[in-house]
Design goal:
Beta-Lactamase; Heat Shock Protein 90; 3 domains; six-stranded antiparallel sheet; HisK_dim/P_dom; HisK_dim/P_sf; phosphorelay sensor kinase activity
């Protein structure tokens, strides 16, 4: 038993049951079932049609025999019937049934209105005719059906009455062997089986060939995927010209590859920028420490160096914190609370803390009268969003400028607006300002005390997590306006 199971397992592993072969096998099996059902229906229809033809022929033959009978003074005479039907026995005695063959000769029987036998052909003795074949015609309805002989041969039998003045005088029964019909049907079945076998073989070969043609685009997809797996993300799947499922699959895969290529490009750029941003404060800290250690200095000079190192350390710590926050967000590990937040109170509190930075840069920070707004969200993240937007507006506004904060609301959403009179952003840079470490001026280096370059990326991430959106409009030299749309109830 174990050896048989092992043999089947080995066979299953060794025979290449490819998808192409499986599809061809399924198509051939389905066509075989359809062909079998069609053949059965056709066989039944042909058999019934031939039997109906036999019944019609028997009816005509019974009519012909009835026209040969002679009625004289209420008595049927058979003097002409022996000439028309050789072998008709007009006696009431049986004949030798062993020498009778229903497939040869004529099957005829005559009975009077009382069911008394008037005469029959010799082979008719072998038939097992039911009593209803006599009684039903006497009641006015012809009878037809299939009966068996003593040798279990099937015979089609037809019975009708001969009437005079509306009264039944005799019953005429005519039969015909179905052996010829069955032989014809058997030949037909053999022919159908032979043709069906040829058709199935042709179907199997054709299905296998068509499956190969159908899977050719998939093979090209697999080859392209192998090249992509090797690291070439610039490869694209060939798109078939026919608008079918394979074309849709190829277009979808190409879109996915475009997205992956763009994602990897952003990731490489992010890693490069992050490495640069992390290296800058480390280099500053190391240089300042080296300079301070070259010779003895006064306590005041050491204090200045330590303050500078502390500022760079704080900037480095903030950069690492922002990077970790975005990394957790990308992996879906950042947790956002859903709590009731009074946004107007939150904005006023954050703006009050930002006034010191605005005052140092000689910038007027004004907060319009805010309507009371309550929404569901993460209070700490919303504070970070407001602070980053205000810090960005103050940092890129020249001294003497202004920053205005407003809040608009309707039945479904709230709009948080930060507008400044800063340096503005050129139109070609607007689509990229929320990308990580994106620089409007790539040649510009970050000065001490500048931001980490992740502030707007974090703002966009927080807004998106709150199921909101952010838009920006700007003109170079005139300022920028950031509008955050947040749903009131989430």
């Amino acid at each position: 038993m174990k050896s048989l199971a092992s043999l089947l397992t080995t066979l299953r592993r060794s025979v290449p049951f490819s998808l192409r072969l499986q599809l061809a096998a399924w198509y051939t099996s389905a066509f075989a079932v359809l062909l079998l059902l069609t053949g059965m229906v056709f066989y039944q229809y042909l058999e019934r049609s031939l039997e109906a033809s036999v019944d019609t022929d028997l009816g005509l033959r019974a009519q012909q025999i009835a026209s040969s009978l002679v009625l004289h003074q209420g008595t049927i005479t058979l003097r002409d019937l022996n000439l028309a039907l050789p072998g008709l026995d007009t006696s009431t005695h049986g004949t030798d049934t062993t020498s009778s063959d229903v497939s040869q000769g004529t099957l005829v029987r005559l009975l009077d209105a009382h069911g008394k036998l008037l005469g029959e052909t010799s082979a008719f003795h072998t038939l097992h005719a039911p009593q209803s074949s006599v009684t039903q015609p006497l009641q006015g309805t012809p009878w037809q059906g299939t009966v068996l002989s003593t040798r279990d041969q099937e015979v089609r039998l037809y019975s009708r009455t001969l009437t005079s003045a509306g009264q039944p005088l005799a019953v005429i029964q005519v039969g015909e062997s179905l052996a010829t019909l069955h032989a014809l049907l058997h030949q037909l079945v053999a022919a159908l089986l032979a043709v069906g076998a040829l058709v199935l073989v042709s179907c199997a070969l054709g299905s296998y060939w068509l499956a190969g043609r159908s899977f050719a685009p998939m093979k090209r997809l697999a080859e392209t995927a192998s090249k992509i797996q090797a690291g070439d993300l610039h490869q694209r799947v060939p798109v078939p010209s026919v608008r079918d499922e394979m074309q849709y699959l190829a277009l979808t895969l190409n879109k996915m590859l475009d997205s992956l290529d763009e994602s990897f490009s952003r990731q490489r750029r992010f890693v490069a920028d992050a490495s640069h941003e992390l290296r800058t404060p480390v280099t500053v800290i190391r240089n300042k420490a080296d300079i301070a250690l070259r010779k003895s200095r006064t306590p005041q000079e050491y204090t200045i160096v330590l303050q500078s190192i502390s500022a760079e350390t704080e900037r480095l710590s903030q950069l690492i914190s922002d990077l970790l926050a975005l990394a957790r967000g990308d992996e879906g590990q950042a947790q956002f609370e859903r709590e009731t937040v009074h946004l107007d109170t939150l904005i006023e509190a954050v703006a009050a803390n930002a006034e010191e930075l605005a005052h140092k840069r000689d910038i007027c920070l004004s907060v319009q009268t805010l309507p009371p707004v309550t929404l569901l969200g993460d209070e700490a993240r919303l504070i970070q969003m407001i602070l980053n937007l205000l810090d960005n507006a103050i940092r890129y506004t020249n001294p003497g400028g202004s920053v205005q904060v407003g809040l608009l609301t309707n039945s479904s959403e709230v709009q948080f607006i930060v507008q400044d009179t800063g340096i503005g952003i050129a139109p070609e840079h607007l689509p990229h300002i929320f990308e990580r470490f994106y620089r409007v001026d790539p040649s510009r280096t970050r000065t001490e005390g500048s931001g980490t370059g992740l502030g707007l990326s974090i703002v966009e991430w927080i807004v998106r997590k709150h199921e909101g959106s952010i838009e920006v409009s700007s003109q170079v030299g005139q300022g920028s306006c950031f509008i955050v749309h947040l749903p009131i109830f989430q």
